[in-house]
Amino acid sequence: PQGTMAFTGKYEFEADENYDAFVQKIGLPSDKVELGRNCKIVTEVVQNGNDFTWTQHLPGGRSTTNSFTVGKEADMETMGGKKFKATVKMEGGKLIADFPNYLHTAEISGGKLVEISTSSGVVYKRTSKKIA
């Protein structure tokens, strides 16, 4: 069914909100802060039922890939390069993952990929438009 494949696609960074407050809250090193600011990250998602491969392509050829199955613990990596284990849940069409110091949700809304990260009351929102 169409609904299960909703995430598959390539998305390019369009806008974000609260970036500085959020990266400060999670203690991102300043070199990484500048790297991520208005960064044209391209997020590539391949969804096959409950199995996902989620790749973030950063300018300069660096990329981070996380593969996971909804409801099963997986080895993940943050954009800062920290490795951790998480179980991604699916609730109401949203993917929800507990990162080491923030809660991350992702959903497709109006054809865009909307990602929200929350850390101690600071909400960071990133919107990416579909390009493929």
From TrEMBL:
Top-level taxon: Eukaryota
Compartments, as annotated in UniProt: Cytoplasm
Domain Cytosolic fatty-acid binding proteins, chain residue ranges per copy: 9-26
Main localisation: cytoplasm
InterPro entries listed in its UniProt record: Calycin (IPR012674), Fatty_acid-bd (IPR000463), ILBP (IPR031259)
Keyword set, alphabetical order: Cytoplasm, Lipid-binding, Transport
Gene Ontology CC terms: cytoplasm
GO molecular-function terms, A-Z: lipid binding
Cross-referenced PANTHER family: FATTY ACID BINDING PROTEIN (PTHR11955)
Family: Belongs to the calycin superfamily. Fatty-acid binding protein (FABP) family.
Protein name (database record): FABP6 protein
Originating gene: Fabp6
